[in-house]
Here is the input.
Amino acid sequence: MEKGNVLSVDLFQRMLDFVFEFGPRLLGAIVVLIVGLFLVKLITRSFVRLMEKRELDVSLLPFLRALVNIALKALVVISVMSMIGVEMTSFIALLGAAGLAIGLALSGTLQNFAGGIVLLVLRPFQAGHFIEAQGYMGTVKEVGVFHTILSTPDKKVIIIPNGPLSSGALTNFSREPQRRVDWTFGIAYGDDVEDFKKAINTFLNEDDRILKNPESFIGLTALADSSVNFAVRAWVNADDYWSVFFDMNEKVYKRFADYNLNIPFPQVDMHVHNEK
Here is the structure.
């Protein structure tokens, strides 16, 4: 037999051996790839429906959908490459090292990203709520993945990173439909307490924004140096809080005299003794 014919037969035999050895693996890998991609699509769609039922913030949903989709596809690809005999240990170790390096370099950014996920999922506040956090007070304008934007009453824009915002103390003034308004009013020593209660009850009853239930409260809190101090508490709808607060202060200032009441101010009595 000629040398060329021998080489051809040998090459053909090697090809047959390769097909019989790796063909089933390759076919199985193709099947796993097709089925895996179909399942990824199905799982991603189910995940999106679940998040929509939970009324997840619309700004977070596209990102989470892409994240889940990419993660599942990566698992499918790794499984397929393992089936056809590709050594994945070194590859996975390389990816882990790269991920660690990137994580250390972007630790602050990743912390804010994780905080944004927590805020958007748990929703301790939402756009339009008035909150106090990280030493700032304002109306929430936007809840992003990395930061939250507040607008203060004097129209300053405050951008707060989501990392400390999600892990720190936070006060939401808009979460409940009703709020309690608290005042402290003082009258002079010698003024009649009943006249004070009559005046305050009149002011409260003539304001339709003040709720009848829960009932308002008036109580003596302190016998101070220059005044007798009373706590006054009333319940209002959250949107009426500040208007009721300011209007009551104005009524007290303008109309206390009509009830023979005096608004006290600090004063000092001085006694001079002449020594001869």
